[in-house]
Amino acid sequence: MLTKSKVKKSIENFPDSFTIDDLIDQLIFTEKIEDGIKQSDEGKTISNDEMKNLIDKWSS
Prior knowledge:
This protein has 60 residues and is mostly helical.
């Protein structure tokens, strides 16, 4: 979940002029990264071999 401080930090890293789409993209990216870190911390990951097997099944 995003917090005010995280949003402020994202905005501070932007140039003086930016589009709302740029901001939204950055906030979505930040949230997705945080979700991935949380999943990793909770052990909700798969190995590289498991991922390769899944990709092989998709391309078949």
